[in-house]
Amino acid sequence: MERVTILHTNDLHSHFENWPKIRRFLQQKQTYASEHYPVVTVDLGDFCDRVHPLTEATNGKENIALMNQVTYDAVTIGNNEGIGNTKEQLDNLYQEANFPVVVSNLSSLDQQASTWCKNFTIHETPSGTRIGVIGLTAPFPFSYEPLGWQVSFPDEVLPPLLDELEPQTDVIVLLSHLGYLDDEHIAIHYPQIDVIIGSHTHHLYEEGKLIGDTLLAAAGKFGQYVGEIVIELSDQHQIVSKKAITHPTKLFVEQLQDQEEIKAYEIRGHQLLSEQTIGHLPVSWETDAYSEHSYIHYALEAMADFSQADAYLLSTGLFLGGLSKGIVSRDDLHRTLPHPMHMIRVTLRGKDLIDVLTEMESQHDYLLDYPIIGMGFRGKVFGELKAKHIQKVENEFFIQHQSIDQTQEYQLIMMDHYSFIKFFPKLTALGKIESLCPSLLRNVVAKYINKTFKL
């Protein structure tokens, strides 16, 4: 009889406040296990999140350095790694990694093989049990393709992948950054996968979940839990039993130096970003959307400078602070616009545009103080929508002071966040949406400042 333990982390999102405790826990488990039974340690992606200044300053390289502190046997990527970086940044992200990156549904549009990832890896225990590990990341084609990637859906890649892997393995483990609904679908339709470790939707299975003979495991978000899976196998390498548990990190012992380490990550990130100056503002940009020099006004100007359209939309809740008169650095922009969201171009017929604008207006009072969580948002409340080139006089909307032609097509540029949240269903139902990746708002504003207010 053989016992194999799988330790798993996921969706840390650069919440380094839990990392020292997680690192010690994994290292202690690995040390003990190495003397008693095999252990496999994996991460499910979104370890990086540009909301943290150190991640932003190093394009995630420091996150990988932290992962190297633990002996990971395989990791996959999440959307924060995949579409939170340019293609060049992602190609370089794992250069110093001492672990394999497994992404089975991502390839380069130029047909060149990626050297930083593989379709699967096989881990063999001292007793000869062969554990095949595959990884799937959430497929967002409209975001990946502008970046130069082709991302496939699970049902497209799993049949040939499993046909190749099954003869070579005794156990198959899926590292899933797809979300719990996809995990359940896969468990039902691909029973040859023995264990699915889930993430992306930040769900938590404290003691796992069985669908047929497939064990589903998940450990929440932000390093609040570490997952552990125990598999028992016969001498013929057949699975006899499997179970999953989770360990709340709030119960882990904190050491005196932990807070100092955590603070040091933040200080270093701010320092690195502060050293990268962008321009010199002649006046302060205020968060008050109605002030003479409002931040949102200049951000809308930056969007117009970035890409041509008939109108532009932004919400005030995106702006977490103002910019002071004088030198502006990347740290200032990251502090005020930390959101990992990109811009989109939405094409609408005039008739549909009026419907969308009417829908947005109807949500004004509700969204003004509505707390938004996730979908790329890293602020507190949604706030108020402000526009460039959209006017309303009495009960009629105008574009660039012209009446809207109901049969003409119009293009609006806004954040992709607005197409993800539930409040504007007509936007996605009626509009043709094109991603403008890579187009983080702070980077677009940085280019505008550098062009208009040079040092």
Automatic annotation (TrEMBL):
Residues annotated as domain Calcineurin-like phosphoesterase: 5-203
Record-level GO BP terms: nucleotide catabolic process
Residues of the 5'-Nucleotidase C-terminal domain: 288-418
GO cellular component: outer membrane-bounded periplasmic space
Domain of life: Bacteria
SUPFAM superfamilies: 5'-nucleotidase (syn. UDP-sugar hydrolase), C-terminal domain, Metallo-dependent phosphatases
InterPro entries: 5'-Nucleotdase_C, 5'-Nucleotdase_C_sf, 5'-Nucleotdase_CS, 5_nucleotidase/apyrase, Calcineurin-like_PHP, Metallo-depent_PP-like, Pesterase_YunD
Pfam families: 5_nucleotid_C, Metallophos
Keywords: Hydrolase, Nucleotide-binding, Signal
Any one GO molecular function term: 5'-nucleotidase activity
Family (UniProt): Belongs to the 5'-nucleotidase family.
Protein name (record): Bifunctional metallophosphatase/5'-nucleotidase
Organism the protein comes from: Vagococcus xieshaowenii
